[in-house]
Amino acid sequence: MKYLLDTNICIYIINRRPEQVLKRFRSVEAGDVAVSAITLYELLYGAYKSGKPAQNKEAVRLFVSPLEVLPFDEGAADVCGNLRAILERSGDVIGAMDLQIAAIALVYNLTLITNNTIEFERICDLKLDNWL
């Protein structure tokens, strides 16, 4: 595995726009891409609150089916707790879900693909890329 997709990138791919994100996604091997359980939760939450929950839930399932879903496990919890303490001391707190996604990327040594680089740049040693 090489890449962990953030929720915003997954939404772009599911919606098939912008085209450059979809092209980049199609250019990598399925085994090189993963999503976190946190991202899956966010995608499913969006599907359930939408006007077409069944259709959108199915779109999420189809998108995720070839990908590995990485858990927020004990290792990620430890990294996440440490990151939050460091960020709080410096006054650079980020959202809990983003922090959990970043911790998973760090534990698995993956590049986080996101369109929210400003938020994630606060985390030392986190590899980032934006497919936009």
Describe the structure in your own words:
- The chain is α/β, with parallel strands linked by helices and 132 residues long.
- It is 58% helix and 11% strand.
- It is built from seven helices and five strands, in the order βααβααβααβαβ.
- It has a five-stranded parallel sheet with strand order 3-2-1-4-5.
- The mean pLDDT is 97.
List the SSEs and their pairings.
Blueprint: E1 3-5, H1 7-15, H2 19-27, E2 33-36, H3 37-49, H4 53-64, E3 68-70, H5 74-90, H6 96-107, E4 111-113, H7 117-120, E5 128-129
Parallel strand pairs: 1-2, 1-4, 2-3, 4-5
Helix pairs in contact: 3-4, 5-6
* Number of continuous helical runs: 7
Total domain modules? 1
Q: Please describe the biggest sheet, giving its number of strands, its sense, and whether it closes into a barrel.
A: 5 strands, parallel
CATH architectural designation: 3-Layer(aba) Sandwich
The total strand number stands at: 5
Based on CA inertia axes, which overall geometry fits?
A: globular
Structural class: alpha/beta
Helix content: 55-70%
State Rg.
Answer: 15 Å
Please give the CATH class.
Answer: Alpha Beta
Termini Cα gap: 21 Å
Fourth-tier CATH superfamily name: 5'-nuclease
Mean pLDDT: 97
Strand content: 5-15%
Order of helices and strands: EHHEHHEHHEHE
CATH topology: Rossmann fold
Widest sheet: strand ordering:
3-2-1-4-5
List low-confidence stretches: none
